[in-house]
Structures are given as structure tokens and as C-alpha cells.
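Hi W., the 3-isopropylmalic acid complex you wanted:
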Amino acid sequence: MSAPATLYRKLVDSHTVAQLDAQNVLLFCDLHLMNEYTSPQAFAGLQEQGRGVAMPGQNVATVSHIIPTHPARYRVIQDPASALQASSLKRHCQRHDIALFDTNDALQGIEHIIAPEHGMVRPGMVVICGDSHTTTYGALGALGFGIGTSEVEHVLATQTLVYRLAQDMRIRVDGRLSAGTTAKDLVLMIISRIGAQGARGFVVEFCGEAIEALSVEARFTLCNMAVEAGARGALVAPDQKAIDYVLARAPDIDGLERERALAHWATLRSDECARFDAEHCFDATQVAPYVTWGTSPDQAVAIDGVVPGAEGAQRTSVERAQRYTGLASGTPLEGLPVQHVFIGSCTNGRIEDLRAVAQVVKGRHVAPGVRAMVVPGSGAVRAQAEAEGIATLLVRAGFEWRQPGCSMCLAMNDDVLAPGARCASTTNRNFEGRQGRGAITHLMSPAMAAAAALTGRITDVRKLEPLQ
Ligand SMILES: CC(C)[C@H](C(=O)O)[C@@H](O)C(=O)O
Ligand code: SF4
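Structure:
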């Protein structure tokens, strides 16, 4: 019998083509996703060397980061440099026979939303992309991680990657999240406790009652943000929920193939006595809505908390963050005025997120002076929200209803905030200038962002006055 193994090691071992040395393996990648931002240079490198794409069918591309999100059906990329990125992605995909969700494709969207949505990501896979939030796919028991541009080139040419092994971390979350709290609050709390480098060098497996109780979409949010604690990957062992999610989107898995897949997926869990290099435990019943106050995702507190004091080892970074966000030690987060609200991104731009927003907004209106924008994660999410009446509800309430894309998550298109503007955002990074030079980002859940839009202040969604 082989030694007990973690799920992570099982995934690595089943994809190892060759052991290069004690630390590195040559890893086979089942699925390689690309965007217009990090792949054109890789294609150019390939072309220079006269190399082709080894397995075009295992590569998929989308235009996501620089795309305009104005409501107009037909989208034209005005910025010349961005237009060139999109057109060169298209040319390379055509040339190498790679599927592309192009600018005006009805199903275009953020890579981390569209790949699972179309059943491309399955338990047991290795999925890579020139984008750090590729950790998202761990929600389905697939090992996802971001790679650099030179690696993108290597993957295109060989469908393999030189991979440095990570260590194993387990994060167990007992109990259940209480009403008004979500996977976003949980992950913000975890990051605030273990730090932005707390999982550096590790692949994190999440387990426990709270994780089992999460929907698959909520697990995407959790695994998406694990990278903000420095994790090199995040995993949740695939259960019936994950399997049902995949089977509903992958009609090609049927008959004998289905039997085979189910048998394989049943093995995708850490063995009973598997050894983890580090472990953490949290209690979901203690999770409150969380909000960031600073310029790193770990600078977060519960909604009834205050901006912490600048002391000890963190002093310089706390002081710097306080200067940037204009918040002194002791300032309560609750009640802080915001001028902008952004709902979207690969963290919280899925249909369940928009349903949560609609539930809070129903019967209410965006506060005067607040600009609130909803950018669905994909064309499919947008269509679904329209079919469910969510779009109409939000527009009537005063929200802007946009076309899909990364948008104000990192402001690489023209959705950019003015200096000094304060934004309640459902995204994953609150770095300086992320949403516009001098703009201030407060990360939170979709329900909390909705509440901020309605009151014009950072608000505990659990305390919103009931409607008469
Ligand atoms: C542009 C891309 C390389 C980047 C990433 O790797 O994550 C972006 O998606 C982000 O969220 O900051
Ligand atoms: S939505 Fe934001 S975090 Fe996600 S891929 Fe786009 S820019 Fe990166």
C-alpha cells in the first residue's frame, strides 16, 4: 500500500511526466486558459522560435481585462494599445486553432467565470493561466495556479510546465456561517488572521463543516481569494455538490466515461492519515461581515471593528495604508461614506452573487450621490440575471448594468475611479491605485456592497431597516 497522500500530492503525482529534481517536476496541464493581457507576448515568442502549439484543444482564450463594459451591445476597444492586445490574441488563436471568447462573443467573460461555467474545469485536472486568480478552480477539486508569460510560452509549445512543488496546508472551518455572512467574509477573516503571506509556498486544502455547507459558487470565491494569503493553490475535495455542478455543465461526460470519471473523482480526497506541513482551524460561527480598511487584503476587520493602531512589526505598512486610505487608528468602518460601489469580478461576479445583491436591494434605491455599478462576470451570468429579472430590479434601483469583464476590479479599461474616491467593492485586491490613481477600495461581500450602495455608507447588511 502506498503512503497516505494529500489531495494536492495526488493531483501533482497524477500529472507528473518527469521528476526533474527533489523540488521540481515536469507537470502535464489539462487546461490552459489565456487572456489578452498576459498571452500575446508568449505567442510572439513562440512565433520567433518557429514553434507551434502542442495541443490546441486544451487551450482556451478570452478577452477580459481591457474590454469596455458600456451597455452597448457592440463593443469597440478605443484605446489603441488595448485594441492591439485583443486583435493579436484573436490572430494567434485563429492561427493556432485555439477557441476564443472574443470581444463581442455573447458568452465572453472573465476567464475564471467562463471556464467552469462551460464545464471545462473538472475534478482532478491541472488548470493554469497567466493570471494569479487561477486558484479559483480548487473549488471543483482541480489544481489551478497562475503562471508567468515565459511559462505560458512553454505550455503552448509542450502542454507541460516545470513546476516547483508546494507544501501542504490544511485550513479547517468548523460550524456554520450565520445569516448575513458569506464565503467572502470568511476568506477575508482568514486572510486577516494568517496574513497576506500566511500561506506563501503552500497549497491550501479547505475542509470542515462550513466548507461542506458552502455552495460551489461560494467555494469559487473562497479559493479565488486564497492567493491573497500567498497560497500557490487552493483545494476543496470534490463532493456531490461539485460533481453535480460539473456534470450539469459537461454533457460529454456520459455512459462509460461517466462511470470512469465518477470512480476517479471518488479518490480525490486527502487520505485519512495524510501529513500536512501546516494547519489552521477557524470557527464559522464567529464570522461577521468583514471589510478591508487598508491597502492589502489582510488589512480587514469585522464591520463593528475600527482601523487598528500602528504598532510593532506592522507599523510602517499600517501607517502607509492609513495615509493612503485617509483613515486614522480608531476610526470605525461602519458609517464611512462611499461615493462608489462596484459589484463584479472573478471573486463575486457570479449569478449567486447577483441574486444576493438583488435580495438586499429589492424595494430600495441607491443613495443620492452614489455611483453603483454591476458588472456580471460573463455573458452567461448577464443573460441569466436578465432572465431572472435581477437586471431590471437593479436598474430601477439606480444601479448601472454593464457588459461583462474585469472592469473596475483593476481599472485597465475606462472604468476608472477619480483620485480620493472611496469605493465599496466586491473584488479581491485593495492595492494602492488598483481602481484608479488615488482611489480607495474597501473589499467586502456582494450583500455588504449592496447595503453600502443603498445607504451611501459602509453598512452592516444585517442591520438594514426592514421595509414597511
Ligand atoms: C493582469 C493579471 C496578470 C492579474 C493577475 O495575475 O491576477 C490580474 O488579473 C489581477 O487580478 O491583478
Ligand atoms: S476580475 Fe479582477 S482579479 Fe479577476 S482576473 Fe480580472 S482583474 Fe484579475
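The longest strand covers residues 167-174.

W.
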